[in-house]
Amino acid sequence: MEKIKLGIIFGGMSTEHDVSIVSGTSVISNLNKDKYEVFPIYISKDGEWYTYKATNISYKVGDKISNITEIDNPISYLKNLDVVFPILHGLYGEDGSIQGLLELLKIPYVGCHILSSSISMDKAYTKIIFEKAGIKQANYLYLKLLENKYALVHKDFSEELITLDKACEIAEILKYPIFVKPSNSGSSVGIRKATTREEMKEAIKYAGQFDSKILLEEQIIGREIECAVLGNEDVKASCLGEILPSDSFYSFDAKYNNAESKTIISAKMKENLEKQVKELAVKAFKAVDGKGFARVDFFVNEETEEIYINEINTIPGFTEISMYPKLWAHSGISYSELLDKLISLAMK
Ligand SMILES: Nc1ncnc2c1ncn2[C@@H]1O[C@H](COP(=O)(O)OP(=O)(O)O)[C@@H](O)[C@H]1O
Ligand SMILES: [Mg+2]
Question: For residue 6, how far is the Cα from the chain centroid?
Fold first, then answer.
């Protein structure tokens, strides 16, 4: 049988470049080489395309990639492939742009298509879809940074110009602590938890360095629970995972630099809550018109039995120790089998 020519694209132009190197190289080393002819493609932070020759090095977040050779013509390089797995986290990878390129080239690819990718990458728009789906989530305010002014974006999308001080004053209806997030954030980059007006002001300015859309959210008290979904039409939910961050929230440092952060698989809770989380994960995935796979993140308050959705990640971390593959491993699907499933879903 002829091998499937599989492109793995990793790296990329987002703030999650380094995380993607770890995910991408991990996928490359776990693929069944009898089945696939693997074409690793690395995109540098400034958007140059390279081929990558897999080494035995296992990358950690922050390591520089080696063994790369520039690709003269990325388009003709891609056209030779049967299917592509973009393991690019964040902007230009998880937001529909690479998906758009692959659509244009008529190359099947793993994961969500353009619309679901772009909605899910933008926290403000994800919220609008979840609202429509009736899925409970944190109360929030949506600000836009326009040149040096701010606009409060109302529920009907009308914009009211306000000063930063006024924005902070209005946001205080949410009660401290308030999470301030760039709308397009990933890996917690640009996110701060503000406990005073002064901190909120700084946090808004800081978030504005990453995106011109900024979300202010009330804090949700509850366990941080994640669920993996897999499928195109018939979507399955995995067992649940739990995050125990080492920090006061799951910040970039707590995610990648702090060994004290722990993940638990599978997370135990009352059966009815567990069942609801799984149903909501599939519902949220369908609501954004997801395909292939995603990790859906929640806060679960066991006392009040309330489940709040936090976000949906359409290209979740994919190292061997990442939550997404580990949830499936616990549900009986090994890392390599999972890759096979994702690739066959892409080719359907
Ligand atoms: N409304 C909230 N209430 C409580 N914790 C939150 C809230 N929003 C975010 N967090 C914390 O911040 C982390 C990162 O926020 P998140 O929205 O998931 O951004 P990212 O897309 O960068 O992962 C979460 O994992 C959680 O620990
Ligand atoms: Mg998150």
Answer: 22
